[in-house]
Amino acid sequence: MSELRVKKRDVGATALLGRNGHPQIATPTGGNLSVVTAASEPGFNPLDLLYSSLAACLALSARIAASRMGVLNRFEAVEANVTGEKSEGEPARILRFDMRLTISGDFDEPTKQAIAHEAERICTVSNTLRSEADFHLSIA
């Protein structure tokens, strides 16, 4: 019997912000991104990145769900749209996430529903946002 081996990916992010300018985000795998701060600036702000993480995770999880359900051969695409409602006061936070999956392929409505709900169950990001993860802050 062969042993299943899962390759681990280095994860995390570092934000560097000087006295002026925008935060620069770097990942251990070489990803880089400049974060915008003004409402009219094109690009990603911190909330966009949060919504993007959830959207990407749901999309990937929908494909995984279709594969697990044995219907990947009929799966064409998925579009995950995530928005939300931000609190008016302190502490600043997202009060509600609105998620919409548009699943394309040769599926009836019950199968699309099953894929979508399984995707939400699989998604690490949605599972984390629903949980009470511990936060540990240290000062260097």
TrEMBL record:
Q: Which InterPro entries match?
A: KH_dom-like_a/b, OsmC/Ohr_fam, OsmC/Ohrsf
Name the Pfam families for this protein.
OsmC (PF02566)
What's the protein called, per UniProt?
A: OsmC family peroxiredoxin
Origin superkingdom: Bacteria
| Biological source species | Agrobacterium cavarae
